[in-house]
Every structure is written in structure tokens, then in C-alpha cells.
């Protein structure tokens, strides 16, 4: 069975800035009003026969969105990006060939993410993994086969990632 949360209607949104380092048009600081759709596939279980309690899943996703909301998203693992934290600021430099860009941003305005980029593709992986981790922490993962998230940069434009958990679970 598949449980689905529609990000627009469920209020699973965040507004953030990012840079797609090296890209011709997206290689500058710009932002999106993102919304996140989530699908979870698994067998109904427990006292109430839920795949996963909607309320629990919404709270998990809202917490992730809240950490990213109104922040500049910086990928920690980008191969051409170097950063250091000094006092209350982050200094980062993108360097690829002759293209060098330097930034200094207040640390409170930034979220460092364990990604190679902050594209919708990478953010959808990030959300799927973060949801999985929280379901594991809550011990609510035994019946879940996969988690799929779509991170939309606007209406009609997003990327979807499916994370397989328990391949051998019967539905």
C-alpha cells in the first residue's frame, strides 16, 4: 500500500536560496519556494493498520523543511567548493579553472548540507534519507518498503528520489 502526502496541501514547504556552482544561469545566489511531496510504500501494520501515521510523517517532513526555511543552502561535499567558519561567518570559495567566486555570509543564514550540490535532485535524496533516519529513530520502519520524495522548485518542476528500505518485505 502507498501512503501519499501532497506538499502543497499538507503545508510541506520551505523557501531557501542556493547556488548551483558553475552553472551558467543558476550559478548565482537565487531562491525557490519549494514544496515536498512524500510517498511511502509498505504493509499496513500495528494496532490501527497504518503504513505510517500521517501525523507522524507530516511532522518529520515539516521539521526538515523548518531547518532549511529562509536559509542559504550550501553543499559540504562539492568538489570545487572550499569553506571555513570564522567567528559567526562562513567563508566559501568556488574555484573551477578561471571561474573564482568568494563569499562571506553570516553563519546563522546558512545550512551546510552533506551533499555535492543543492539541486532538486540532491535535495530529494536528502529528504528521503532524513525521513528514513527519523522513522528508524522512532522504530517505525519495519513495515516500510520504500520512501519516495519529490522536491519541487515550483509548480510543475521537481525531482523525485526513491530510497529502498526493506526490499524483501511482502506487501
What do these coordinates show?
- α2 crosses α3.
- With 171 residues, the chain is α+β, with helices and mostly antiparallel strands.
- The protein is built from three helices and ten strands.
Task: For the structure shown, list the relevant keywords.
single chain; about 170 residues; alpha+beta; 7-stranded mixed sheet; 3-stranded antiparallel sheet; 3 helices; elongated
Q: Compute the gyration radius: what is it?
A: 18 Å
> Looking at the structure, what is the overall shape?
elongated
Largest sheet: 7 strands, mixed
Strand content: 35-45%
What class, by secondary structure content? alpha+beta
Distance between the termini: 7 Å
Q: What is the tally of beta strands?
A: 10
